Amino acid sequence: MSHAAYPKDERALAQKLRITADCQIHFRGKREGDWPPVGNWGWPCYSQAWFLRQIEWKAARGRDHGVSGMSTTVTETLTGRERVTRVCKYFVRRLLFPIGVLCPFAYFFPKIAIFYLACGAYDVGRNKGLNLSTLRRYFIGNGFGTWILSPVNILLDLLSLPYINKGVYRLEDLPPSYKEEVARLITITKDHNLVAQLEERAKEFPRTMIFFRWYGVNMDAIVNIPAFHEPWKYIQTIGVSVFNKKVSTSKHFGYLRASLRILYNLNDMKDRSAYIEVGNTINYWSENKLFIFDDTLLHQSVNETDQTRYCLFVDIVRPTLFPAFMRAVVSVVRFLTQSFKFIYYNNWKILER
Q: Helix crossing, 8-16 with 48-64: angle to 10°?
């Protein structure tokens, strides 16, 4: 079916909406004739009824979040070779990997497979609103690394007792010494008006990250804030995450539970279309500037506003009777990942001096 076959009003509506359901539909083409839209794995979506159902679903979800409209994402036209590549990736990820790798591994190493299945079942089961999509993402999607590290994460949960992992935290849930350090960091950040200092550089890119401290080591950032380089007992990472307007992440998992993620919104967002979603919890930056969570849970950050969103990006060691051990785990992670930090943040532009 050609693009011209769609009624004019429906085409106009489609141009105003960005469909970001689990299938991640994007308009693959800059010309009006480039049709049909193509799914995230290269499958064309020919059905007009299907397409309109996605629009209605996303529009309804947007109204629930206080969003009056969505933007379009326009990318380059897929060539025949690119379409084949996408289909091959889909085939490998969804069929070849489970059948060709996981099944033989379970056959030859059944005890290890049962152990990992049990650890994974516990680990993924911590996600609120668990569904088939979450299971797929965890076991054969971008959560596979989290599954591999699930025995380590469970051990870290045990070593954190009597502090139970709440998944999503309030500041009041942290021990007093942790709260004091977080409050001091937020005060320092407010005093230096980071948004004004970063906006000129950050506006050039869709998603930007600036690190002042990374896994316990001070970094030479493009903005000099000496107070960020003072000794911190619990805070391990200090950065600023910048989302340009109409920019969002996909749903994803973090890898290791030695730390908690703290986000603090630095500028005033005007509506509820900028938020972070963790399981069944949605935090709207216009209503609550501070959000603390276990980032090994499935989460997604969204900015569908016409503003740039600035958030302080902080990792703090988990509350535990053994904070030195948790800091040591963070140091090991830094040592193992410092050479390929670009892989961790491959969808970001990291601004460095």
A: 50
* Residue closest to 264 by CA, chosen among 248, 240, 243, 245: 240
What's the CA gap between 124 and 147, in Å, rounded?
Answer: 8
21-25 CB contacts, 8 Å cutoff, 24+ apart: 21/54, 21/57, 21/58, 22/133, 22/251, 23/54, 24/250, 25/51, 25/54
Q: Which two tokens stand for residue 323?
A: 């904070």
Cβ contact 237:214 at 8 Å: yes
Q: Of 206, 202, 247, which Cα lies nearest the Cα of 222? A: 202
Domains of the chain, with CATH numbers? 3-75 (no CATH), 168-350 (2.60.120.330)
Find where tokens 């900028």 sit.
274
- Give yes or no for a contact between 218 and 335, defined as CB atoms under 8 angstroms apart: no
Q: What does 34-55 look like in DSSP terms, one character per residue?
A: --S-B-TTS-B---HHHHHHHH
Q: What is the greatest pairwise CA distance in the chain?
A: 65
Distance CA 24, CA 40 (A): 5
What is this structure's pTM?
A: 0.75
The answer for residues whose C-beta is within 8 angstroms of residue 160's C-beta and 6 or more apart is 318, 319, 320, 326
Tell me which amino acid residue 243 is.
F
Query: 227-250 burial, b if ≥16 CB within 10 A, otherwise e?
Result: ebeeebebbbbbbbbbbbebbbbe
**In 109-258, alpha helices (H):** 110-125, 132-140, 144-148, 150-159, 176-191, 194-202
pLDDT digit string (tens) for 223-268?
A: 999 999 999 999 999 999 999 999 999 999 999 999 999 999 999 9
d(CA 62, CA 70): 8
pLDDT digits (tens, 9 = 90+) for 269-291: 999 999 999 999 999 999 999 99
